[in-house]
Task: structure prediction
Amino acid sequence: VLELRRAQFRAEQDRAKADADLAYQVQQENARKALETERAEAELIRLQKEKGLTYMFITHDLSVVRHISDDICVMYLGQLVEKSATKTLFNKPMHPYTQALLSAIPVADIDKPVKRIMMKGELTSPINPKPGCRFMNRCEYACEKCAEPLGDPTDFGNQHTCLCIRCQENL
Result:
Protein backbone atom coordinates (compact mmCIF):
# COMPACT_ATOMS: atom_id res chain seq x y z
CA VAL A 1 0.00 0.00 0.00
CA LEU A 2 2.85 2.38 0.88
CA GLU A 3 4.54 1.62 -2.45
CA LEU A 4 1.28 2.35 -4.30
CA ARG A 5 0.94 5.71 -2.54
CA ARG A 6 4.54 6.60 -3.42
CA ALA A 7 3.88 5.74 -7.07
CA GLN A 8 0.74 7.88 -7.08
CA PHE A 9 2.62 10.76 -5.46
CA ARG A 10 5.43 10.51 -8.08
CA ALA A 11 2.82 10.44 -10.87
CA GLU A 12 1.16 13.58 -9.46
CA GLN A 13 4.56 15.30 -9.25
CA ASP A 14 5.31 14.30 -12.84
CA ARG A 15 1.96 15.70 -14.01
CA ALA A 16 2.55 18.96 -12.13
CA LYS A 17 6.04 19.26 -13.63
CA ALA A 18 4.68 18.54 -17.12
CA ASP A 19 1.96 21.19 -16.65
CA ALA A 20 4.53 23.73 -15.49
CA ASP A 21 6.78 22.88 -18.46
CA LEU A 22 3.89 23.30 -20.87
CA ALA A 23 2.89 26.64 -19.31
CA TYR A 24 6.50 27.84 -19.61
CA GLN A 25 6.65 26.76 -23.27
CA VAL A 26 3.39 28.60 -24.06
CA GLN A 27 4.70 31.71 -22.29
CA GLN A 28 7.94 31.58 -24.30
CA GLU A 29 6.05 31.09 -27.58
CA ASN A 30 3.79 34.07 -26.82
CA ALA A 31 6.81 36.23 -26.00
CA ARG A 32 8.49 35.16 -29.27
CA LYS A 33 5.36 36.01 -31.29
CA ALA A 34 5.06 39.41 -29.58
CA LEU A 35 8.71 40.18 -30.39
CA GLU A 36 8.23 39.14 -34.03
CA THR A 37 5.13 41.36 -34.28
CA GLU A 38 7.01 44.29 -32.75
CA ARG A 39 9.88 43.84 -35.21
CA ALA A 40 7.49 43.60 -38.16
CA GLU A 41 5.69 46.78 -37.05
CA ALA A 42 9.00 48.62 -36.71
CA GLU A 43 10.03 47.51 -40.21
CA LEU A 44 6.70 48.60 -41.71
CA ILE A 45 7.02 52.01 -40.06
CA ARG A 46 10.63 52.39 -41.23
CA LEU A 47 9.72 51.54 -44.82
CA GLN A 48 6.67 53.80 -44.69
CA LYS A 49 8.79 56.79 -43.65
CA GLU A 50 11.75 55.97 -45.89
CA LYS A 51 9.82 55.26 -49.06
CA GLY A 52 6.68 57.34 -48.45
CA LEU A 53 4.54 54.21 -48.65
CA THR A 54 0.83 53.90 -48.12
CA TYR A 55 -0.50 50.61 -46.72
CA MET A 56 -3.85 48.95 -46.86
CA PHE A 57 -3.60 46.78 -43.79
CA ILE A 58 -6.53 44.42 -43.19
CA THR A 59 -6.89 42.98 -39.69
CA HIS A 60 -9.19 42.54 -36.72
CA ASP A 61 -6.34 43.53 -34.39
CA LEU A 62 -6.61 47.30 -34.06
CA SER A 63 -3.69 47.38 -31.60
CA VAL A 64 -1.33 46.68 -34.52
CA VAL A 65 -3.02 49.16 -36.84
CA ARG A 66 -2.68 51.88 -34.23
CA HIS A 67 1.09 51.99 -34.67
CA ILE A 68 1.35 52.00 -38.45
CA SER A 69 -1.73 53.92 -39.63
CA ASP A 70 -2.58 57.59 -39.91
CA ASP A 71 -6.20 56.83 -40.77
CA ILE A 72 -8.39 53.81 -40.11
CA CYS A 73 -11.47 52.51 -41.91
CA VAL A 74 -13.52 49.96 -39.99
CA MET A 75 -15.63 47.58 -42.05
CA TYR A 76 -18.27 45.10 -41.00
CA LEU A 77 -19.30 42.46 -43.55
CA GLY A 78 -18.02 44.60 -46.41
CA GLN A 79 -19.75 47.77 -45.25
CA LEU A 80 -17.64 50.76 -44.21
CA VAL A 81 -19.00 51.67 -40.78
CA GLU A 82 -16.45 54.18 -39.48
CA LYS A 83 -13.54 56.20 -40.82
CA SER A 84 -11.27 58.46 -38.84
CA ALA A 85 -7.77 59.54 -38.00
CA THR A 86 -6.18 56.86 -35.83
CA LYS A 87 -5.89 58.98 -32.70
CA THR A 88 -9.51 60.12 -32.96
CA LEU A 89 -10.78 56.58 -33.54
CA PHE A 90 -9.00 55.26 -30.46
CA ASN A 91 -10.09 58.19 -28.28
CA LYS A 92 -13.71 58.44 -29.46
CA PRO A 93 -14.95 55.39 -31.35
CA MET A 94 -18.46 56.04 -32.60
CA HIS A 95 -19.73 52.81 -34.16
CA PRO A 96 -20.66 49.95 -31.80
CA TYR A 97 -18.58 47.49 -33.86
CA THR A 98 -15.51 49.73 -33.57
CA GLN A 99 -16.13 49.94 -29.82
CA ALA A 100 -16.29 46.14 -29.63
CA LEU A 101 -13.05 45.73 -31.57
CA LEU A 102 -11.26 48.22 -29.34
CA SER A 103 -12.57 46.54 -26.19
CA ALA A 104 -10.96 43.28 -27.34
CA ILE A 105 -7.43 44.72 -27.26
CA PRO A 106 -5.47 43.20 -24.37
CA VAL A 107 -4.35 45.70 -21.73
CA ALA A 108 -1.02 45.23 -19.97
CA ASP A 109 -2.12 47.11 -16.83
CA ILE A 110 -4.00 44.57 -14.71
CA ASP A 111 -5.25 47.34 -12.41
CA LYS A 112 -6.98 49.15 -15.29
CA PRO A 113 -10.55 47.90 -15.58
CA VAL A 114 -11.61 47.13 -19.14
CA LYS A 115 -15.22 46.70 -20.20
CA ARG A 116 -15.23 43.96 -22.81
CA ILE A 117 -18.06 44.14 -25.30
CA MET A 118 -19.27 40.64 -26.08
CA MET A 119 -21.07 40.53 -29.41
CA LYS A 120 -24.14 38.33 -29.40
CA GLY A 121 -26.70 37.48 -32.02
CA GLU A 122 -26.66 36.08 -35.52
CA LEU A 123 -24.40 37.27 -38.31
CA THR A 124 -26.13 38.90 -41.23
CA SER A 125 -25.69 36.98 -44.47
CA PRO A 126 -22.62 38.39 -46.23
CA ILE A 127 -23.85 36.89 -49.51
CA ASN A 128 -27.31 38.45 -49.54
CA PRO A 129 -27.45 41.15 -46.85
CA LYS A 130 -30.73 42.86 -46.07
CA PRO A 131 -31.00 46.63 -46.42
CA GLY A 132 -30.04 48.54 -43.33
CA CYS A 133 -27.23 48.13 -40.86
CA ARG A 134 -25.39 44.83 -41.23
CA PHE A 135 -24.35 44.96 -37.58
CA MET A 136 -27.94 45.35 -36.37
CA ASN A 137 -28.43 41.71 -35.29
CA ARG A 138 -25.40 41.90 -33.00
CA CYS A 139 -25.73 45.50 -31.78
CA GLU A 140 -26.91 46.25 -28.26
CA TYR A 141 -28.24 49.64 -29.43
CA ALA A 142 -30.24 48.41 -32.43
CA CYS A 143 -33.74 49.72 -33.01
CA GLU A 144 -36.37 49.30 -35.73
CA LYS A 145 -34.95 52.19 -37.76
CA CYS A 146 -31.67 50.24 -38.16
CA ALA A 147 -33.46 47.85 -40.55
CA GLU A 148 -34.27 50.68 -42.97
CA PRO A 149 -31.93 51.42 -45.90
CA LEU A 150 -28.95 53.47 -44.78
CA GLY A 151 -28.11 56.91 -46.04
CA ASP A 152 -24.68 58.45 -46.18
CA PRO A 153 -22.33 58.24 -43.20
CA THR A 154 -22.67 61.05 -40.65
CA ASP A 155 -19.70 63.43 -40.66
CA PHE A 156 -18.65 64.38 -37.14
CA GLY A 157 -15.90 66.74 -38.33
CA ASN A 158 -12.18 66.25 -38.83
CA GLN A 159 -12.94 63.55 -41.42
CA HIS A 160 -14.52 61.30 -38.77
CA THR A 161 -17.52 59.56 -40.29
CA CYS A 162 -19.82 56.89 -38.96
CA LEU A 163 -22.53 54.84 -40.65
CA CYS A 164 -24.89 54.39 -37.72
CA ILE A 165 -28.15 56.21 -37.02
CA ARG A 166 -27.50 55.87 -33.29
CA CYS A 167 -24.06 57.54 -33.45
CA GLN A 168 -25.72 60.95 -33.36
CA GLU A 169 -26.92 60.05 -29.86
CA ASN A 170 -23.25 59.64 -28.79
CA LEU A 171 -23.52 56.05 -27.68
Remarks:
- The helical segments are 2-51, 62-68, 86-91, 96-103.
